[in-house]
Structure formats: structure tokens, C-alpha cells
Amino acid sequence: MHEENKAAANGCGKSRSGTQNEAALLALMEKTGYSMVQENGQRKFGGPPPGWEGPPPPRGCEVFVGKIPRDMYEDELVPVFERAGKIYEFRLMMEFSGENRGYAFVMYTTKEEAQLAIKILNNYEIRPGKFIGVCVSLDNCRLFIGAIPKEKKKEEILNEMKKVTEGVVDVIVYPNATDKTKNRGFAFVEYESHRAAAMARRRLIPGTFQLWGHTIQVDWADPEKEVDEETMQRVKVLYVRNLMISTTEDTIKAEFNKFKPGVVERVKKLRDYAFVHFFHREDAVAAMSVMNGKCIDGASIEVTLAKPVNKESIWKQHFNGQISPSSENLLGFPNKEDGHQKSLGKPANLLVRLNGQHSPGPTEVERCTYPFFPGIKLTPISMYSLKSSHFSSAAMHLDYFCNKNNWTPPEYYLYSTTSQDGKILLVYKVLIPSIADGSQSYFMPDKLCATVEGAKELAAQFTLLHLGKHKRFQLRYPCYSIK
Q1: Is 345 helix (H, G, I), strand (E, B) or coil?
Q2: Is 399 inside any structural domain?
């Protein structure tokens, strides 16, 4: 792979003339049979490819490519991405100057090919010292609408959104955790296309648009985490939502054992949702079919297969708004009762995971305690003599690594603002004096928290993640570098 990169760099690492570029692109089109059209600031190669029949590939077949050298073009890029499979369309974003804008979209003919491209080409050295980033690209067709009156039903919200925007397909509304006759103050509106959703957002976003006399909040909904089909085929855990707060784990286990006694291994309930673990996958699939829509303690439940989280991307998921609930390492659905939750995969219980470890919740702390017998010898110790695996919080990790690198301790500065519904929201700015320079004097996340503890933890996570991305710190922070 390195030799191939080297050869590519030798061929096109130097600046090429317009005539050379044109000749290289014409040769590529002649060789592949693909057409090429430049429009609206992008150059489209294919879409469809020669001999293609039928509709375009479904969602999930496109990947986003970032950090492309500005003087690199399709004649170099297409052969690299063809290694993962047949390209349906390659879209390179272009500047007026003729250089590319540093990123592109590659649509494959199947989801499997797109997943393979991410696997083999993310962090690929496309030229010596130049690494590209490749991740899944999804056209977002869903908007988050906040500050909706809680007494409004799904039909009312759907009809109202159809009146004020075009292309509405569906509305997703979740019942209140404590009062199932009310909604949670927000909804997700699904549109027929990304363009329709973008046009609706443009109309609603100014902040002066009102529904039922209320100024609503509008933003893109965070996309659900994509999990490959092979992984989902191994899942034997069910995600159950819309439970009553009062429903117990024992009740849930008994209900799911009714259709076939003894199939449930354990149940983990968090507020109004739960994870039901089965001994065998076939029993989980059968139970999902039988139990979806059933009533437990008067609440009609929804049951789906739980989505496993890719442990290697936990840090990245967190900063994209994807947070795994509690110790289950699975994606769930919203349970906050305010209008600030935008993700379909972001329960309220914040879990910090570091290097494959997760911070224990209250029940886990109890399980991790050991008896203290009279006569046990205690030895004074400094926390800095421990290993990083002894720390469960990002704030402690950051303090630990500053000490290990002979830096001064991190300094935290607290700021606040008030949300539209009157809540005090907090954020910390982190300064590490020993490494402050002109390019990076402080670290501050782009998300606000309702608690001081949460704000400090988030700021520490953000700082560690940023340090992991910086080449000057990657050797010191191998467990936080983003691959």
C-alpha cells in the first residue's frame, strides 16, 4: 500500500497544467466509460455508471471523503476508491480556481462496498504524510422541532407541519415518560428528500416562526447510528421503549418470558426504556415480533433490536451527539422531557467511556466494592503513581496525563447562559498553560450542560479528543487518537 501511495505521489504530487489535467481526466473517462459533468461547484463522475439500469443505490451507499490534497483529482482518486467496489457516482467539490475544495462524496452500488471503503481507506495515506478521512454519508431527511405544546397529538403536529412545509412524510412523537397522554415537547419530522428537509429548515429556522402561538426550535435531527448487517445478525438484545416509570425489571422479565419461559437472561431498565438480554438470538427475534405493541402496566410498548456501538468510535460518536446509555453499550431513544434533545440515539444518562472502560453508575459502584476487614494494611499513595485504567472520568484522565507529561494541571473556567425555556446551561473552557500557543490557547466544547459536573466532564472529554487529533500529541495520547 505504501509503495502504491509513493507511486501516486510521484505521478501527481507536482502542480499540473490545465492541459495535463484535461488529458488525465479524458484518459480516465475513456478507460472507464463514465461521463463527467461540472455544475454547482462540484464535478460529477458517473451517476449512473455505464450500463446502469434501475433506480440509484439506496441510502447508506455513499461515503464522505475529507482531507483530500487540493491538487488531487479524479484520475488519482477514482482508482483508489475503486478498490472497495463499483462506483456509482464520484462527486468532487471544486473551487473557481480549479483546485478541489478538499472533500468529495463517493456513492457505491451497495452498502457493503461503502462499508469496505470506510474500513480500508479511512486514514489512508494517499500521499506521503497526507491521510484522508472516510466515513458514511447520509442525506439527512429529518428535522428536530422543539418547544411543541405537550398536549398536541401526532395527527395535529403532522397536519400542521404539512400546512407550513412541503414534502412531509411522517412525524415521530414520543409520549411523556410520566404522563402518556402528553408528548415530550418535541418531535421529529421526516421529509421525502434532503432537499425538502433543507427547504423546510430554511423557512422555519429564523426563530420567529410560530406554531399554535409558540416560537418553535428547529434544527437537523442527529442521524441514527448505522450498524452493518453482519453485526445486527448477531444481536440478541431487545430495546424496549415507552415503559411506565413504575414498571420494574422483574415485571418486564416476566412479560417477555411468557411466550417462552426461561429465554430471558436479564433485564436492564433505565427510566422509561429497557434492554432485554436473551440467551439465544432466535428467541430475541421471536419475542420482538410477539411483544411489539403489547401493553405492560397500561403502556403500549415499542420493541426493536438494540444497536451495538462500535467501541472504536465512542469518542467520535459522543461529539456527534451519539451517546450510549448506561452500561449497556447500546443505542436507545430519547427520554429527556425538554425540547433540546435532537437525537434518536441519545438517552439522558451520560456515560463516559475511556479506552474501552466506562465510568460506573450508582449500581456499578456497589458491584465494584470490596469488604474492608479489620487489620488490613493501608499504604499512602499518590494518584499519579497509578495506571490510567484506574480512572473512570475524563477529568481525572486529563489531570493524570498532564502530570505524566510534566505539564501544569488543567485550568477550568466556567461560563453560563440561559436557554429559551429559562434553564441555566453551563460550559467549561479548559486551559493547559504548558501547551498553550498561538494556534490553540484553550479548549471549549460546542455543547452546553445542565450540571456543573456534566460540563466539566464534557470539557475534559473534548480536550482529550482534541489532543488525540493533534500529531504533536498522538504519541503521548495513543488511546485518544482518532483513526
Answers
A1: coil
A2: yes
